[in-house]
Write a structure and sequence with these properties.
2 copies of one chain form a homodimer.
Chain A: H1 9-25, H2 31-37, H3 44-57, E1 60-61, E2 70-71, H4 73-83, H5 91-102, H6 108-123, E3 126-131, E4 139-148, E5 151-158, E6 162-169, H7 176-190, H8 200-209, H9 214-232, E7 236-239, H10 253-264, H11 266-274, E8 283-286, E9 299-308, E10 311-321, H12 326-351, H13 353-356
Antiparallel strand pairs in A: 1-2, 3-7, 3-10, 4-5, 5-6, 8-9, 9-10
Helix pairs in contact in A: 1-3, 2-3, 6-12, 7-8, 8-9
Chain A binds a DNA duplex (30 and 30 nucleotides) through residues 28, 30-33, 42-46, 48-49, 51-52, 62-68.
Amino acid sequence: MEENKELDERKLMILKAVIDDYIQSFEPVGSRTIARKYDMGLSSATIRNEMADLEEMGYLSSPHTSSGRVPSTKGYRTYVNHMLEPAAENPALAAEIVGRLEDKMTEYSKLIKACTEIVSDMTHYIAIGSTHGRDSVNVKAIQIVPVDETSVLTVVVADANTVKSKLVSIPEPLEPERVIELSGIVNRSFSGKPAEMISLMTVNRVADESGISRNTVLPITDGIFECIKQCETDEFFTEGAAKLLKSPEFDNIDKARSFIDMIQDKETIEKIVNASGDSESGLTVSIGTENSGEGLSDYSVVTAKFEVGGSCIGSVSVVGPTRMDYSKVISSLEYMKQMLEKKAREDGGRSIPELTVKTEDNEGGGGAS
Amino acid sequence: MEENKELDERKLMILKAVIDDYIQSFEPVGSRTIARKYDMGLSSATIRNEMADLEEMGYLSSPHTSSGRVPSTKGYRTYVNHMLEPAAENPALAAEIVGRLEDKMTEYSKLIKACTEIVSDMTHYIAIGSTHGRDSVNVKAIQIVPVDETSVLTVVVADANTVKSKLVSIPEPLEPERVIELSGIVNRSFSGKPAEMISLMTVNRVADESGISRNTVLPITDGIFECIKQCETDEFFTEGAAKLLKSPEFDNIDKARSFIDMIQDKETIEKIVNASGDSESGLTVSIGTENSGEGLSDYSVVTAKFEVGGSCIGSVSVVGPTRMDYSKVISSLEYMKQMLEKKAREDGGRSIPELTVKTEDNEGGGGAS
DNA sequence: GTTAGCACTCGAAAAGGTTGAGTGCTAACA
DNA sequence: TGTTAGCACTCAACCTTTTCGAGTGCTAAC
């Protein structure tokens, strides 16, 4: 945050102009271009001198002797930290987003998937969403639904509004009444309990109460466990992979190939998603070589974590070329985050009760905006 | 099917050699290459003459005067219809597939998604799966699960083992007992009925029986209807889009771009999926210009429809370059189809009862293999 | 009917030439 | 002391030319 002590007003201005131009044109930027396009009352020669200084300080670099300059990671970092203009308000867009989220609000995983799609559409980059792996999942309801003589549906509803179901076959017919009875026993015993307290053994014991044969109960309890496991598992959504090819950086198909390979790798995704960090706005921006470890050194990742009532419900990351349009990406994610958290707070009393209980108020817009 | 009357044994042999070589190398094939690689006791000159004949007959064409030959659509068609060798059995692969399908068998949409993934993995091409839009959906069970005071989960299980659920908020608290009571009424009245007999009005009327306020019942019935609608809607799964870039035909990124654009277009997908036709094996192969209408004239599509108990439960299509490895693609899809239908028939008595009722036997492997 | 031989074609790759945007440096200027 | 004009230099991009070789068609001999 201190790196701009050495940069005077003019250097900052020129750096910003170079980066803006480069983001837009994806061509190395020359001093004459800046002198012509950005009216700063300076000749190309002066700008040339300043750019030489900026290069020496590490904010810019040139691909080869006689070409224009390209921002370095350090340059981008300064740009992101100090020069981003807040995006213009866009009520139409806001309305559209609200609309697209409207009927998704009830279930978090659908909600985050929808957010991921929206963000990808807004930014034209790849977006990766994930539901956050909560340390402990509370089971809100377990239900066993009779489907026909030889199959039942196990349904588990957990907090964070996660619903998982599994259709299981049972070896011998079971009357619907017995199923409902069993469902009642299981449900009464476990709803409200944290998942780790529900072991296979306890489920079995409870099931035994119903007097149904072990052979029949086993697949059902297995089904319930499968559902709980799925509730605890993080989900990932990658959206907009096709848009990628539209970026001019992928003129060469090999780059596209290697990027696609990388982005499909599960470990890489996890690293991207889990990149922590908390700037004032709640976004994490990781630029170029800053995330070299992941093989992502030519790319930048901007991550927004969504927090409701103090706990993280998931995140959306945008992955794009280092010269991505940070302004657009950051404002889109900020916007999304704000809107989602506000909406969740408003709906809190209804669809996400167990989370808002923890916040002091859920009427005003008071939380950690 | 009659086009090979004019082709003698030797021409067929040469045609096959050219296509095999082209599929493998993706380079126009010259007469000398054939003479060298495929030991047919003929000199390049003879082969050259034959190839000239084949070109005149429309089975081959040459990109320019002094290059090798490339198969035409007619050539591929002959190849596909008459020259495909059955794939070697591969027990390890078979076991892997069975394993990957194992716990997916209960729900058709998951099953088809899994099949699509597997086929794409096996062939290295893009695969598109779809659940077949049944004309009428039968509802097997409807359940309303109390989640907490202000939200309930509506669950609809339809035939073809489709499960849809939706979490809905209700405006005023409702005790779990009342919810279960309501669930019982709705379920008893509608399970086993075809979906079109369940109108919003009838649901409402039934709900009124419970004596719960209309305000509260409405979002719940809406939820049920949403679920039914989803059961009736076809789903599409596109898998392996990234693999595409590995094909040498996408040396030029613009081709990749336009293909991706095309493959994302919903209408194109529907055309691909709905391409009908029934060869003896139950697969449809549409080659190059044969599907010119769809803008797919440089690609081929192989579609397998999965039929269980006489009705179609969905399909998987492989979309790839015209010079795709037909042998591999066709055998993979045939294999998948066989396995899936056999498995469905075996499991029939348990997880897919209403479909197997219609078949005469479900013990032997007797059906339309 | 098959094959060897040969002239010819034409794309792909290599080699050479030109252009122009961009740089660094120096010297003049305010 | 900071700014600017001028100039020599660099180097990727682009165009043109040349070379190369795989492939063809045709003819004549087997």
